[in-house]
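glycogen phosphorylase
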Amino acid sequence: MKAIRRFTVRPVLPDSLRPLSDLARNLRWSWHAETRDLFQSVDPERWAASGRDPVRLLGSVPPARLAGLAEDRRFLRRLASVAGDLHDYMTGDRWYQAQPEELPAAVAYFSPEFGVTAALPQYSGGLGILAGDHLKAASDLGVPLIGVGLLYRHGYFRQTLSRDGWQQEHYPVLDPNELPLVLLEEPDGTPAQVALALPGGKQLRARIWLAQVGRVPLLMLDSDVEENDLGERGVTDRLYGGGSEHRLLQEMLLGIGGVRAVRTFCRLTGHPAPEVFHTNEGHAGFLGLERIAELCAAGADFDAALEAVRSGTVFTTHTPVPAGIDRFDRELVARHFGPDAELPRIDVGRVLKLGMETYPGGEPNLFNMAVMGLRLAQRANGVSLLHGNVSREMFSGLWPGFDADEVPITSVTNGVHAPTWVAPEVFRLGARQIGVPRAEDALTVGGSDRWDAVADIPDQEIWELRRGLREQLVTEVRERLRASWRQRGAGTAELGWVDGVLDPDVLTIGFARRVPSYKRLTLMLRDRDRLMDLLLHPERPVQIVVAGKAHPADDGGKRLVQELVRFADDPRVRHRLVFLPDYGMAMAQKLYPGCDIWLNNPLRPLEACGTSGMKAALNGCLNLSVLDGWWDEWFQPDFGWAIPTADGVGTDPDRRDDIEAAALYDLLEQRVTPRFYERGRSGLPDRWIEMVRQTLSLLGPKVLAGRMVREYVERLYAPAALAHRSMAPDAARELAEWKARVRAAWPGVTVDHVETSVSEALAELGTTLGLRVRVGLGELGPDDVDVQVVSGRVDEEDRIGDATVVPLKPVGSPDQDGRWAYEGALSLDRTGPYGYTVRILPAHRLLASSAELGLVAGPSEELVEAAGLLMR
């Protein structure tokens, strides 16, 4: 029989156990081992059955057990110690509080998904896990962050397999009352709400749930409220589900509703208002429009409000391909804004202009969320050094006339939250060397270039640690594989072979991630005979654990999953290669530590960063990867292998896959497996152990989320806060008016004549070139521009590379034609083909970048030919 109504009945804890409730509701337990150990001691069997979720655990413990614990002095002492530790963590000064006072009072961090813990399944992949790690690291560092997201009633789908290996999706309904959340309430006890206006006089309302992630509040908007019609109730049903309008409404709720939720939260709690708004991908880009509307309501005009909003906004792009960006039909966007819908005081044309692809190669009728994000943010970044380069190329159309390397998009390489992803056994090994406080500090704050203490750990201890973690993984894999086969319809009598799956003494390779085609899940199957030889080698076998989900609408990805599952089902290899369905955080936390090799073989350069290999590295797992994302930046032969790539322009995709798969097999056969199995004089694989040691000591400090968040604070949040403070209403109006004047006058800005002190086409190294340039500034003056000489080596087409920029200075007054003279010196500091050019850029003290307006004036083709600007 099915219930006609559902309740959540919460336990009544004895007074002495009340701190358990506070510990359960603060998600710090998800990365704090002592807190988890405390909950496990409440009832070990129910702890395991609850999925290691303290809220579910406390809801299932019998009253008699609680009564017994309330009288257990030893347990109460442990409880007091852990609760006191949380209080100190929440209230004490941390890294941020020791920094200069000009840091922002608060930062609002918006993301469509957050992977904080498996107990709060609101993530689909790397973007959400990265966002969760960002919040945790900010908490550890004391950064006053406010997270903002949506609460999806179905979360992301659960994955199972049919008998023939086809992915099947299931969407369990989540009850917020059974999650580690509390409802944000008004002083009278009613739920706090935000509302968006919809076309036709309708409204989209949402409640605000609060997840406490250590020191960081995470606000999650939930449209499943009785006041909404059925359609509006379903806006927050599924992560990345539904059609275009559904996605648009989700992103309006996240951006516009999210800002309103932040204002409500600050009003109700007294939390400082954010000075900086950080949007993690374009999904939350509408937040800038809401902030413009706030300023317009306070009396600012649109252009001044736009400048004020841009000054305090940071935009992070995570995609290396245009297809990964949300784009909407302009008519759909137009219908949801304006007098009869949301933000009625803002002209719909101004809204559309922010997102339209008005550049060569753009689609003029599509509204691009990343383009809007870039236009609404004064600071933007990619998520690895390589991805920064890719992003500057991809979005260069927004800054016409500038070389890609001058496009104002920087990069902050992602990191991972070590306390979440480092196995307790690894942490204990480090803590034995340097003590628990120093080990905790090293994993959270970071700051050192290398962890030298790893050098003092004996080889035997490192090898025993690695084997122990591998053994744990073998146990975990067998349990999950048996459950998966039962779900696929196998009976217990058919599954005796599962007890022989994997071997704790065999080289173990892990591959786990989402399954879009560019990540090439099945590259390892390219030559099945060679793969089989590797798996079944009599002296040097390998075993592979694979996991991953394809998007529900991606049948191509599902076919890849099925292809791999069918291979893994082959009785000849099923003890050496397994596919585990329903990849998520709980599985990942066992998988990363237990593998010896982490495999990553995307199509370069389509992996923006890729953080799974970072989590593996922190546990002493070596990376075997294409040089993409973060691995391109930090690879060294001391701690891993680079898979060669076939990047030639003319290489056909099949041929490319064949070449790169062959390179992968070669590496495994000739270099990886011999190193794992060869033994030194001590009887241990000492060369392998040395690579593990180098991975921990050299890569460990780099891949930390603490390092990443400190970079965001120092390079993006602090400058954004200073810019925000300098952008008072008068300054914002001044900058907006200046930009309008410069744009109107720019057609009259010209480089008219260039004279040099050397006329020959040959010059000696160290020669100083005197330059005199005449420029036309039209309606502008020298205070409005920078005149520069740009020089460097040139290629066969006279393109300048590795450029040096030298400013020229105005001399005297304008001549009778209104032209200004500029002079300067250029030192020829490099040999070989060398060239220079002259350009004019807008200049204003409130600009974050001279490329901000996308305006540049240079010499005409005729002037270039006449001047002989090229030095050889």
